[in-house]
Write a structure and sequence with these properties.
heterodimer, A: HU Protein, Chain A, 2 domains, two-stranded antiparallel ribbon, 5 strands, 32% strand, elongated, B: alpha+beta, four-stranded antiparallel beta sheet, three-stranded antiparallel beta sheet, 11 helices
Amino acid sequence: MSHDELINMISERAGISRQTVRDVLGAITDVWSKEILTYGELNLENIGEFLTEHRPGRKAINTETKEIFLVPPRDIVTFMPSGDLVDWSNKSA
Amino acid sequence: MTRDELLRKCVDRGVADETSVSAVSHLFYVFLLSALQRGQRVEIPDFGTFGTRLVGVKRSKKIPYFEPDIDLADQVNERYRELKYVVVGKFEETELKVATGYSGKEAPHDPLVDQLGKEIIIDTHHEVTSSDAEAILGRRKTLNQPKEKPPMPKFNLKEGATEGDTGGQRTPPPTLHEQENGKGPGPLVQVLIAVLILGLLTLALHYFGVITLWGPGKTEQAAMPEPLPPVIQEEMPIDTAAPPPTPTPVPVKKPERPPMGTGDYTVQVSAWQSRSKADREVARLTDAQLDAFVEEGTVEGDRWYRVRVGRYQTQSEATDAAARLGQVLENGAWVTKVGG
């Protein structure tokens, strides 16, 4: 389901303009992103928990060029789904 | 973050009124769940993508996952933006050779070569002959041989032992198994065997009546009269009302035996070299109402005690009595003269 399809469905169901729906969805995701960047974690009720984990730098080899290079450290965003989301996903449609 | 907190923050941004924000957030949650239930992906720009993947052995369970968007990943790694991939060298096979000592082309490192002073040069193009193999194996044997052990001190516990002796090593005593396997029985086993043979021989002599070890001998048992039947006493009724009067002891008068005759003939039952045994035999015969007595006699220097029964005037009377006794006694009885 693409973003536009999601906006159309919500707009049709709620009777709200597509632009309003787009703005609201943008605000929601922006709040989520800010929460993750600020606190490093986001716990959404009935959906799951977003966490940022640190990956230290490492030494790697490019097998084609035989080059040895250093991979810089980075943080990744992980997601732990809640039990309700898992149960709902496994229910028959 | 609860749903109310999310709604409040969205309303604070001024994008829409609270009703619209609430409806959109609710429908967004509903469509997200329904899409995940159908196994579809939900793309959210600038945030990420939600989806499900099948896990388990049977691939029957769906687990939701989230892939962060590139923009979100870049924002999370803002502090590492200046760090780039840095090439620090180039991987070469020489490093592996230095690290392991084997590059795959040359012969592997053999510590034997170092020990032999690199005399052996392994040529992969040279076919190894049997002489080469023997030389290599011979040298390997010499290298594998342990070093010479320090000489052990010699102990000599024997008095007057020479240097050529075994150094006082004690030889363990031969076991019974070793004795049975060619060395013959030891003195202890010989003594045990002798004692066992003597015991068996003694028991055999006792069994055949040659000697008497314990109890009445065979002749004694034969001479014993048959046991009398036990006397069964009648049960007296117990009167519990009054104590029974104490009976006055009445002296029991033993039956008087007829006086022994004065004839010259008698019947001999048995003869013993032990006076006590003869007296015991006489006592038994006397209890059987027989006029038994003991007479001493000497035969070839040995003293014998003869057990005899009754005295008879004539030999015929004695013979009749011997016949009657012979039916009772196993060894029989014979007629003889008194004092003979």
